[in-house]
Amino acid sequence: MMRRVSRLYVRMAVYIGAAIVGFVLLALASLALIASQQLENYLLAREGTLGRDAAQILATSGPPALREWMTDPRTVPDGVVLYILDAEGRDVAGKALPANYRRFVERFVLAGLRSEERNFSPIRLAPLLIAADGTRYAFLLLPERIAPWGNAATLIALLAAALIVIAVVAALIARALGKPIRELQLTVRSVAKGEVAARAPTAVTARGDELGELARDVDGMAERIERLLASRQQLMRDMSHELRSPLARLQAALALAERKQPLPAIEYARIVTELERMNQAIGDVLRFTRLEAEPIRAKHLLRIDELLQTLVEDERVEAGTREVLLALDAAPDLTVVGDPALLRSGFENILRNAIRHAPPDTRIDIRATHEQALGESPTDMVAISIEDRGPGVPDDMLEKIFEPYTRLTSAGDDTTGTGLGLAIARRVFTAHDGRIHAEPAAPCGLRVRIQLPRAC
What is the mean pLDDT of the chain? Predict the structure, then answer.
């Protein structure tokens, strides 16, 4: 079975062939133009009266006067060289004949001077001059620069033609390959950033070559990812709603049972705790899917220092039960634009995560300052860091802890979390055009840094 010829290969072959043809045509045109300019004076001289003037001077005044006439700069125009040769090929004025012309002149010019019969005259390509004593001379006009490859102007013209052809072909190749590849790259980067609705431009997908096939494959991949994510979000929402109803019935049944026949306090507290954990897990799933599917709608101008102050005051109770101190150091007038409830939820998830992993009798530092993000266009940012003195996180897990359902457990750790807190926090800050990352703290512990654009 014959393998199908690559259309991209055919297109490149056409471009290269067109480049070669274009270069040849431009080179020929350049040569013709330069040759016509160089030969202009030569043709005018051949059609003029130089030959008759030379014959008259030779007949009336002899070779010395002819030599003086030939050496006069006004006699011969620019770009033309005059030779008057005797039968031995010697020039009257003593000029040496160029080596590349000697064989030609010997065969077709001087032969007519040396032998001429009554009924036969050899080919003569130069006018014949006859002196008073009967000596024959050949009147020979030659262009001064007849060799095209030895002419600097010709070489420059050929180089210019080559550069023009290369520039045109490079532009065609860049248009045929560079532009669609760049558009595909932008599409893939958008999908990688989570914009699964991004698609390659129609101009690329409509192509009939391998790039068009690649673009259609990329669109198919993005469409499948979009469907998978949509179905996952729908499944999580449906499951969360379906679990909410039996959970509410369980809580009501527990309350009724407690009224009719009180349960032992320990068992009752354990049941209530587990139900609360289930309710928290379901709420986290709903918040996570909502952040993934819906844009932020409520945006207000708010002060980060006040939001953090309120949050720290609310969390002091939980921190106190674990003998952990919360220390806030926030610069004043740090304003951002965003959803107050969502931003509080993001900071709360990080702070509560730090409280759960902080050892007793340690401190959690919460700092908020102003800084400028480096990049092509520096941007004013509000930088918030939450630092604990817990066991920390391995370096290879610093990025993974922000993925859903990632939990690091070791002996003595609190396992009451759902594994969605930090994932929700990342979605919250990303939705506000911010960034979040984790890094080891010194001498131990974990530092989570958040950057949000500062309001103008």
Answer: 79
Judged by average pLDDT, the poorest of 81-90, 153-162, 185-194 is: 153-162
**Which residue has tokens 């932020």?**
296
Phi, psi of 335 (to 5 degrees): -110, 145
The 3-class secondary structure across the chain, one letter per residue, is CCCCCCHHHHHHHHHHHHHHHHHHHHHHHHHHHHHHHHCHHHHHHHHCCHHHHHHHHHHHHCHHHHHHHHHCCCCCCCCEEEEEECCCCCECCCCCCCHHHHHHHHHHCCHHHHCCCCCCCCCCCCCEEECCCCCEEEEEEEECCCCHHHCHHHHHHHHHHHHHHHHHHHHHHHHHHHHHHHHHHHHHHHHHCCCCCCCCCHHHHCCCCHHHHHHHHHHHHHHHHHHHHHHHHHHHHHHHHHHHHHHHHHHHHHHHHHHHCCCCHHHHHHHHHHHHHHHHHHHHHHHHHHHHHCCCCCCEEEEHHHHHHHHHHHHHHHHHHCCEEEEEEECCCCEEEECHHHHHHHHHHHHHHHHHHCCCCEEEEEEEEEEEECCCCCEEEEEEEEECCCCCCCHHHCCHHHCCCCCCCCCCCCCCCCCCHHHHHHHHHHHCCCEEEEEECCCCCEEEEEEEECCC
pLDDT tens digits, one per residue of 113-168: 666 555 555 556 677 788 888 788 888 877 776 554 445 666 776 777 778 878 88
d(CA 60, CA 442): 114
- Predicted pLDDT of residue 327: 93
Q: Tell whether 49 and 127 lie within a shared domain.
A: yes
For residues 289 and 307, membership in a common domain is answered with: no
The answer, as to whether pTM is greater than 0.70, is no
Q: Is residue 172 part of a domain?
A: no
Query: Is residue 335 domain-shared with residue 440, that is, in the same domain?
Result: yes
Domain final residue, candidates 235, 264, 293? 293
Q: How many CB atoms lie within 10 A of CB 343?
A: 26
Among 83, 115, 145, residue at a domain's last position: 145
Q: Mark whether 271 and 361 lie in a shared domain.
A: no
Q: Is the pLDDT of residue 411 over 60?
A: no
Span 13-63, pLDDT tens digits: 777 887 788 777 877 777 777 666 666 666 666 777 888 888 888 888 888
Higher pLDDT, 305 or 246: 305
